């Protein structure tokens, strides 16, 4: 099981980041979960550079540029140098700021080129009775992986994060059966896109209002390989409760 803590811009203070990191290290020692922290980029180096623990780090995004005269951009190489192992790419909050499927594909290629393992985020904004949201998810995955070599495709993790659940409460999140159905669907899409049986290794994660109140049920039924947790990962006690519920 993998748990990714997406701090977004909730954590604006390095002291709080350090506290959450210290908690994560303690949790990692007593659980068999793989804990990955995605701090805001100014904190990445401060937390990840001399990290000797089993807690890993992710960039929250990578730039579509490769460096040069681009003030304010944070490239894949910068995050890799600062200690990230993974990169979230295509998060709906980045897509809302203009990341198209083509930009997402380019970012995935940049992440690979600099040794970052991408976590490709996909998700529909609403569910229609006709099931069009399924082809929307298929399109996001297909377009995201399009530019990658077959071997690289197998290394990308997929985080399914429906927009209608993000930032909500456990009660408003997806139900275990609906999640199970979507995980199966994503696995089917991956089996079509990846060579041989390699898609079986792909990690499929879920994100969107994962809290201590729903994580155990979601994990029990859905066959997801882990969770991407936003707001509930930015508080020591709620994050601890989630990790304990899964351990
Ligand atoms: P949330 O965010 O847990 O606050 O819903 C998840 C995400 O957007 O990654």
Description:
There is one protein chain. This protein has 247 residues and is an alpha/beta fold. It has helices spanning 14-30, 41-48, 76-81, 92-95, 101-113, 132-145, 150-153, 176-193, 215-222, 236-246, and strands at residues 2-6, 34-38, 56-59, 86-89, 117-122, 157-160, 204-207, 226-229. The protein has one domain (2-246): Aldolase class I (TIM Barrel). 42% of the residues lie in helices and 15% in strands. It has an eight-stranded parallel beta barrel with strand order 1-2-3-4-5-6-7-8, surrounded by five helices. α1 (14-30) packs parallel to α10 (236-246), α5 packs parallel to α6 and α6 (132-145) crosses α8. It is globular. The N and C termini lie close together (9 Å). The model has no long low-confidence stretch (mean pLDDT 97). Bound molecules: 2-phosphoglycolic acid. 2-phosphoglycolic acid (PGA) binds next to β8.
Summary tags:
about 250 residues; single chain; 8-stranded parallel beta barrel; binds 2-phosphoglycolic acid; about 15% strand; alpha/beta; TIM Barrel; about 40% helix; globular
Topology of this protein?
Blueprint: E1 2-6, H1 14-30, E2 34-38, H2 41-48, E3 56-59, H3 76-81, E4 86-89, H4 92-95, H5 101-113, E5 117-122, H6 132-145, H7 150-153, E6 157-160, H8 176-193, E7 204-207, H9 215-222, E8 226-229, H10 236-246
Parallel strand pairs: 1-2, 1-8, 2-3, 3-4, 4-5, 5-6, 6-7, 7-8
Bound molecules: 2-phosphoglycolic acid.
